[in-house]
Design goal:
With about 375 residues, the chain is an alpha/beta fold. Helix content is about 65%, strand content about 10%.
Amino acid sequence: MANPVSDKVEQELENLRRQLDTIDQNIVSLLAKRQAEVERVVKLKKAHNLPVYHPAREENLISQLRNQGANAGLNSDYIEELYRRILRQSRVEQAARLSQKGVRDDATVLMVGGMGSMGQYFSKWFADSGYRVRILDQNDWLNVGKLCHGIELAIISVPIEVTAEVAGKLGPHLPVDCVLADITSIKEQPLNAMLDAFQGPVIGLHPLFGPTTSTMDKQIVVVTPGRKLNSCRWLIDQFSAWGTIILQVTAQEHDEIMSIVQTVRHFATFAFGQFLCHKQIDLSRTLEFSSPIYRLELGMVGRLFAQDPSLYSEIIFASPKRLALLKEYLSSLANNLAMVEKGDKEMFRAEFKKITDWFGTFSEQAMRESTYLINKLIERF
C-alpha cells in the first residue's frame, strides 16, 4: 500500500525541483544576455583601443553586489566569488577578441630570441593581433640587416647575461624610428645597454608571468621608460588591449623591489626544496598528514622545480646587489638559529609581536586571501 504522506512529499519535492530548473534556465538565459552586452562592449573598445580591465569599476561593482546580496539575505562572500568568476570570464572573452586587432595595424615586429619560450609566446600574441612577425635567433645574425629592414618594433627576449651583448649587436641595424624593448626580469643594466646601442625610442618591459599563461587578463607588465616614451605608447596600449595591468616605474626601483619579490623568495624556496631532497623526505607521506596550508606551500616548492633551472639561476645570480641581499637574508637565518639554540621563547614572542605590528593591516588581508586559497584547495582535494 502506498504511503500517502510520502507520495505527497515526493510530489511537493518534484514541484520545487521544477521551479528550481526554471530558475536555473533563467539564470543561464540572463548570462547569455550579459554575454551579448559584453560583445557590444568589445566592439566599442576595439574601435577606440580601450583597455579590457578597469579595476575601479570592477571593485565598485563587487561592493555593490555584495551589499545587494546581503540585503537579499544571501552570503556576501558567495556573491563576490560568483561575480568575480563571471567578471573574469567577461575579461577573458574581451581579451581574446581584442587581441585579434593590433593597435598599430600591419606593423612589423622583430622578436630577437624568438625561438625561446617567451619569444614564441609573444610572437604568437603579436601574430594573432595582425602584426607581421619576424624571428631573429642565434643562427640568423648573418641576415640581421634584412630582418631589421622596415620594422617598427624589436623585442629582445634572450637570457639576462647576454642581453647587453645582443642589444649592442642589434642597435646599429635598427631603423631610427623603431621601438627597441626587452623583456628581461632585471631592468637597469639591459635598459642602459639598449640606450647605449640605439638612439631611437627605448623601453624596458618585464612581464610578471611565464609562457604557460593562457591569457594576459589581469597579468602585470612592468614598464621602465628609457627614451621617447611617447613613441613607445602604442606598444603599452597594445599590452593594455590584451588585458594586462601596466605598472610604470624606474628601472632602479624595479630592480630593488624584484630583489625581494623574486631573488630572496626563489632562493628560499630552492633552499627548502634542497633540504627536503637531501633528507630524502617522503613527500607523499607528509601530504597524508598535512594541513591545507602545508600542501599549498609544498605545491609552490614543487612548482619551482617543475620549471627551467636556467631561468631561476639568471634571476638569483643577476647582480652583485642581489648577492649582497642574499647574504643579509642568510645572516638573518643564522641569528634566528642562535635564538632557537638558546631556547629563548621570550625573544621569539617579542620578535613575533614586532613583526606583527610592522605587517599591520596587511596581515588581515593575507589571512582573507590565504583562507580563500586554502578553501579552494580543500574543495579540490
